[in-house]
């Protein structure tokens, strides 16, 4: 029947709130009675033969694909790269000898992705569609499919599909690493980690009032905004900035924190809002000093920091988790920042101008 938003003013807020449950649903869907990760053995055999994974997607799903690269490389020791579907099909890079294609798509109907699927099938390469809609075109036409179990996503701005895609990639990378006997996969307790992620997401969601206050302080009247991070925090910056721009019409950019000084820092003025994601242990100190430098130029800076990297002055602290999965947590306050900015400006949060939930033209 008709999906209801219940007491929520908009589907987007409901869907943000559903993310902790979706983590559990994915674990249930992809573990056996003993609690071991269990994924279609034919799919894993096909992936095991591959010498490189090509992750092809668009929009938010592409950002989830960027996060997936490190999961597959670290846990399954296979090179993995995410590509924009609209670019890949017409400028196909020189492929490895045994490529395997992963199409990430909430709707399973994105035309940009389908044109890639058609082309790589004609070349005889194997493929998997990871999607929220089992009956979709891309689910039917790929060799294999994995479902996201996120439940219908109604708001145009994607939230729970993003975190579901990252969790699904983690489960798949763990399973692939295990069939390849990779020690890092054996050590990565994905079921435990996704349980931690669910609990931590819930704790962040319960800080709505604090995050709403930050949305007001940073974005109430601004016309532009910056998000920075390094490693996976950079990929979160891209998704965080997309959330803000699609529903609040604030021009927002996500940057690799180290690159800001090579040009973009010229845009920083008094009161320019900047959000810094600091979870990556390798680069936390560098990103922190990049954020300090922006603050010294008069910017308003919000730091979203993992417990392990936190300092006294940090404003939003997220619980510790395996760094590979930090995006599952750090995106939550960013989704809420975007939501409240749009809501407070009086926009139709679920139906932003010029956008469609699924884009079936190239
Ligand atoms: C549209 C939506 C985006 C989405 C993108 C990819 O542009 O507005 O929110 O990320 O399509 O959609 P897909 O269904 O393939 O994940």
From TrEMBL:
Record EC number: 2.6.1.16
Gene Ontology MF term list: carbohydrate derivative binding; glutamine-fructose-6-phosphate transaminase (isomerizing) activity
Positions annotated as active site in the UniProt record: 357 (for fru-6p isomerization activity)
Catalytic activity reported: D-fructose 6-phosphate + L-glutamine = D-glucosamine 6-phosphate + L-glutamate
Record localization: Cytoplasm
Entry superkingdom: Bacteria
Gene Ontology biological process terms from the UniProt entry: carbohydrate metabolic process; fructose 6-phosphate metabolic process; protein N-linked glycosylation; UDP-N-acetylglucosamine metabolic process
Residues of the SIS domain: 43-182, 215-352
Keywords, alphabetical: Aminotransferase, Cytoplasm, Glutamine amidotransferase, Repeat, Transferase
Gene Ontology CC annotation, any one: cytosol
Subunit structure comment from the entry: Homodimer.
Function: Catalyzes the first step in hexosamine metabolism, converting fructose-6P into glucosamine-6P using glutamine as a nitrogen source.
Identification of the protein by name: Glutamine--fructose-6-phosphate aminotransferase [isomerizing]
Organism: Lacticaseibacillus saniviri JCM 17471 = DSM 24301
Lineage, opening ranks: Bacteria, Bacillati, Bacillota, Bacilli, Lactobacillales
Gene that specifies this protein: glmS
